[in-house]
Here is the input.
Amino acid sequence: MSTLAFTNCKVLKDGRLNYGLGVTVKNGLIDDISSEGELRTDDDVDVYDLGGQMLLPGFIDTQVNGGGGVLFNDSANVSGIRRIAEAHRQFGTAGFLPTLISDELDVVEQAMRAVDDAIEEGVPGVLGVHIEGPFLNPERRGVHDSRKLKRLTADTVNTLLPIRSGKTVLTIAPEAVDAGTIRELSKKGFIVCAGHSNASYAQTAAALKQGLSGFTHLFNAMSQLGVREPGVVGAALDDPGSWCGVIADGHHVNPVSLRIAYRCKGPDKLMLVSDAMPPVGSVLKQFRLLDSVVDVADGVCRDQNGTLAGTALDMIAAVRNFMKFTGIDLPLAVKMASTNPAAFLGLGNRTGAIEIGKRADLVVADDDLQVSMTWIAGALEYETSE
Ligand SMILES: [Zn+2]
Here is the structure.
């Protein structure tokens, strides 16, 4: 693999945009970050003059149900995953977890095998899988099919294993699993999150003690912060160590709630997620979600009962929205889209920031936050045609 150099750009490094720096990439890794005059740009280096644009760490989306017209539940195979990856790449997503919503256990197994196959075949950007359900609380099911939901029994725990080649996030409702299950799953290597849950504060706090890592789409489909019962939301906001995914589309969560979450969790523990559905990167106006029909209007996905059914959100839009909603600056918003999810997945030493030795997962964007290139492991995987 040849050496690359990015010049004439603003490099997001150490929490700020740096003018006058350039970056070289060798063998898929960031090799050097120096002032442009000191950068190697001899004949065997491919030089990319970025025309003053920003060079950002590639986004990592831990909740992607679909994209490019494809729903992962319906296309739990390598070509489906490839299609979803391509759709999101145009919005700066350099790493993601295909996310399966509640389905039969044989579909769950098939989805996990498909993600292993995709990683082994080298589909760019696949970091693992997110299994969201079916061990959820029917009272907080959202658009998940109530017929698919079940308790997680000890027998099933014994047969469940994380995937071989990447990370496995499992979203459960703490009250839908037996005592000790979360500890058991964490020991096996699952990253366990709470979601679609009506748990009390005490149940959630007990789950955190057992090794619960985080919360799936904080605020949505969970017990809310009440006056005498803090619920899942209260437990999440109160706990300094856990991670919270948030959907910053302006429809799922009121911007005020996002600002409060940011104040409680700080800049290190919130992650922007898309919770994206098939319309992202496609022109779909309607799609099937298992047995229901979902309409897409004004960037919002709703089933025929009017329930929000995932999003038409992409990661660069989530960054733009979060900045607008909370007033935080670009380096912090980007950190929530790249560095924080990398750390949540235990990949913080490999990706999620522009640092020497990290994988060259990079996004090039202009000052209006329009993505023009997405690089994954030093390979140009998306370039705008304009
Ligand atoms: Zn959900």
